[in-house]
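This part of the workshop introduces the protein records we will be handling. Backbone structure tokens are a discrete shorthand for how the chain folds in space. Once this layout is familiar, the rest of the handout is easier to follow. The record below serves as our worked example for the rest of this section.
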Amino acid sequence: MTDFALGPFLLSGERLIWILVTLVLWGAAALLSRRGRPDLNPWAFRATLAGLLGARLGFVAQNADVYLADPLSLFAIWQGGFALWGGVAGFAAVTLPLMWRRREMTPGMALAVLAALTLLFILAQLGRANEQFLPQDRVFEDLAGRQMTLEGPGVVNLWASWCPPCRREMPMMLEEAAANPDLPVYFVNQGESPGKIRNYLSTSGLVMRPVLDPAMGLMAGLGILGLPATLFVDAEGRVIHTHSGEISRAALRQGLSDLKKEIP
């Protein structure tokens, strides 16, 4: 889904959806509370917080080996890493017992959840209606001038040498790419000359086969507003997930694992 720029801040479309759904839940709870029903505001806040915590802990549990090796990365939530099932479990852990103890709150809670789910369904349908695909008819070149196309299933990383988060995540991404040779990982440089890219690779000691995109056509065509961006692409060339900003090892592994399910 398309990213959104809020001043100097970049927000991915997926995160914006969940922010809007949360705001609708809170708004519905506040409106129903003002209309004479029991106060639903404390429940809405606690349930949302429990859902966020559950989503994070669920993802950490799925990728325990990564976080055991680097415990501090548990707190790098800006790199992504949330499990929907964990969020649902956390939300339900607060909501269901309260429904049982305070049954007079059940109708209002149900209406607030229904409002949030309705918005989520609408936004999800809009997202499916605006699916994005890699340009199948476009031919790219590497530093040696060899032609290549981007094909799925695979991962496309948009980067530039002037971008600090790109430089931070690159060694990790190259390690994961080498560990998963059955899935291509394309490192598509945005807007830099071959000489600048060669100089960066030489000074950094990184070994890779970058793809050149001097006109930044992929960023423009896919609505990417900032670097780095990591795209997970299915076998039909459809972008099924876009991670904006620096990606964690766990999030990359999860995306690779999901793509491997499409390999016959």
